[in-house]
Amino acid sequence: MPHLVMSGYKVDVGKVVCIxxxxxxxxxxxxxxxxxxxxxxxxxxxxxxxPKGCAVIxxxxxxxxxxxxxxxxxxxxxxxxxxxxxxxxxLFDRASLSSASEEGLPWAAASGHDTFCPVSxxxxxxxxxxxxxxxxxxxVNGKEAIRTDTGSLVMRIDEALSLVSRTMTLHPGDIIGxxxxxxxxxxxxxxxxxxxxxxxxxxxxKVRTAKGDLEEGAT
Length: 219
Prior knowledge:
The chain is an alpha+beta fold. It is 15% helix and 40% strand. The strands form four sheets. Strands 3, 4, 7, 8, 10, 13 and 14 form a seven-stranded mixed sheet that branches.
């Protein structure tokens, strides 16, 4: 059973809901809800396994919220129902996502692959005093790729909880990932990515090298 880790114990994960950017950047940018399956979750040092033909993987870092109590549309004080905070990565097959967007097809075939949601261990909500300006960094093969802070999240935590709970009830163990603005990067086979959100969590994952698939995807 997929799980999240916090303070030395494991909590079974239910669903993963990502709030991701859609369309153009800047003032015209929009967001959308995206579900990832339990099988997409991997932990620190877990290996990302691209599907056959996937040459370039898109990657967007997220602040991850772990739900500790049931949250529905009528629940008040939703943020008090959070168990903890962590870091997660929204991974997707760039070519497949572009095709799906153009044809109006679901994005699951691009972003729902196994291993396409690396997740850090979580820090208890009680231990995180201020979420307004936590630093985020992501490095690829030892070089800095992204540096920003939680002021650039696509949505505030209270807004995210309200948005998701209007659509679906949240249960203990569910994870919500809130993307950072203008923070997408590309990963290739063999890349090692390391990242963290200060006082919250760390990720470290390598993309499996598959020479035949890389050559096929590059032609």
